C-alpha cells in the first residue's frame, strides 16, 4: 500500500497537479475508497520525516487540498444517493437542499458520466437525473424570485390547509387546476411544506401523512398540466427499439378515447403538433446551450436523448407529414 500511495502522491503533485484532474482520477478509480485512509496517513508520515521545509509544506498542502476535493465529492455523492432513492420527490429535495445544487454538483455528475463511458445505462440515468434536477432548480428559483406569485401561492395553500377535511382539501386543489390557478409556484410551496414536515421530529405522524397526501395530489395534478405532446414524447423516448417506437408513434396519431391514469396515459395528438414540439425542444437545447442557470447541467443533456429526438423529428416528417 505504501508504494501505491507514493505513486499517487507523485501523480497528484507532478503528473496531475490540477484539482479538476484529481476529481476525474478519484471518480474513475475503483480502489480509492480502500486507499483513502492509507493515503492521508502516508502524506502525514512523509511530511513529518521530511527535512526540506518546502517539500514538507507541499506534502501537507497536497493532503489538505485533496481532502477538500475528496470531502466535496463525498457530499455530492450523498446528495446523488438521496436523489436516486427518492426519484419521485426531486422537487422536495431541491426545496430542502437548494444550496447544495451548485455548479460544482453538476460538474461532479459530468465527471461521473465520463467515468461511466462504457456503462451506457448508468450514463443515461445520470444525464436524465441531471436534467430533472436542473428543471426543478429552475422552477424553484423562478418561484422564489417572484414575491407576488409566492405570496399568492402561500394564501392558496393556507386556504387548502384550512379545509374542513382532507377530501375537501383535495377538492380545492382540483378546483384550482380546473380554473387554471394551480401553477409551479404553488407546487413549490407545497413541496417545501412537505419537505419541512418530513424532516421535523416534532410533527405528528398523522399530520405528516396528510401533508404527504396533499403533496401527491398536487404533484399528480401538476403533471396533468404538462402539455400532452410533451408527455407523449417522454414515453416515446423511453422506447429503445426503433420499430416499437415507430408503432407507438403511429398509435399516438390514431384518434380514440383518451385515458389519463395514475400509471398509464392513452393520449393522442396530430403529427403537426408533435413535430412542432420536437422542433421547439431541439431549438431550445441548441440555442440555449450556454445560457442556462447552471451550464454544467445543460452539458449533461444526454446525447442519446437528443439523438432520439432528432430521429423522431425525421420519422414524423418523412412518414406522417
TrEMBL record:
It comes from the Eukaryota. PANTHER family: EXOCYST COMPLEX COMPONENT SEC6 (PTHR31755:SF3), FOLATE RECEPTOR-LIKE (PTHR31755). This is Uncharacterized protein. It comes from Selaginella moellendorffii (Spikemoss).
Amino acid at each position: 500500500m505504501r508504494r501505491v500511495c507514493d505513486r499517487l502522491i507523485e501523480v497528484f503533485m507532478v503528473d496531475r497537479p490540477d484539482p479538476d484532474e484529481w476529481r476525474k482520477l478519484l471518480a474513475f478509480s475503483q480502489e480509492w475508497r480502500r486507499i483513502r485512509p492509507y493515503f492521508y496517513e502516508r502524506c502525514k508520515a512523509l511530511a513529518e520525516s521530511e527535512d526540506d521545509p518546502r517539500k514538507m509544506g507541499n506534502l501537507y498542502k497536497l493532503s489538505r487540498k485533496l481532502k477538500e476535493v475528496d470531502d466535496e465529492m463525498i457530499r455530492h455523492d450523498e446528495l446523488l444517493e438521496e436523489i436516486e432513492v427518492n426519484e419521485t420527490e426531486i422537487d422536495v429535495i431541491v426545496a430542502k437542499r437548494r444550496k447544495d445544487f451548485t455548479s460544482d454538483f453538476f460538474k461532479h455528475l459530468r465527471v461521473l458520466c465520463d467515468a461511466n463511458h462504457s456503462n451506457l445505462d448508468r450514463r443515461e440515468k445520470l444525464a436524465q437525473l441531471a436534467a430533472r434536477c436542473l428543471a426543478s432548480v429552475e422552477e424553484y428559483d423562478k418561484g422564489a424570485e417572484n414575491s407576488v406569485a409566492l405570496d399568492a401561492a402561500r394564501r392558496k395553500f393556507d386556504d387548502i390547509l384550512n379545509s374542513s377535511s382532507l377530501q375537501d382539501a383535495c377538492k380545492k386543489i382540483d378546483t384550482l387546476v380546473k380554473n387554471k390557478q394551480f401553477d409551479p409556484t404553488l407546487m413549490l410551496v407545497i413541496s417545501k411544506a412537505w419537505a419541512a414536515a418530513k424532516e421535523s421530529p416534532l410533527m405528528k405522524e398523522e399530520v405528516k401523512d396528510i401533508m404527504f397526501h396533499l403533496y401527491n395530489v398536487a404533484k399528480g395534478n401538476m403533471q396533468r398540466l404538462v402539455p400532452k405532446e410533451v408527455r407523449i414524447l417522454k414515453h416515446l423516448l423511453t422506447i429503445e427499439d426503433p420499430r416499437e417506437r415507430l408503432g407507438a408513434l403511429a398509435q399516438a396519431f390514431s384518434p380514440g378515447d383518451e385515458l389519463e391514469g395514475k400509471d398509464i396515459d392513452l393520449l393522442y395528438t396530430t403529427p403537426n403538433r408533435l413535430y412542432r414540439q420536437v422542433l421547439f425542444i431541439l431549438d431550445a437545447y441548441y440555442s440555449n446551450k450556454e445560457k442556462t442557470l447552471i451550464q454544467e447541467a445543460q452539458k449533461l443533456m444526454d446525447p442519446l436523448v437528443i439523438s432520439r429526438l432528432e430521429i423522431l423529428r425525421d420519422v414524423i416528417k418523412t412518414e406522417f407529414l
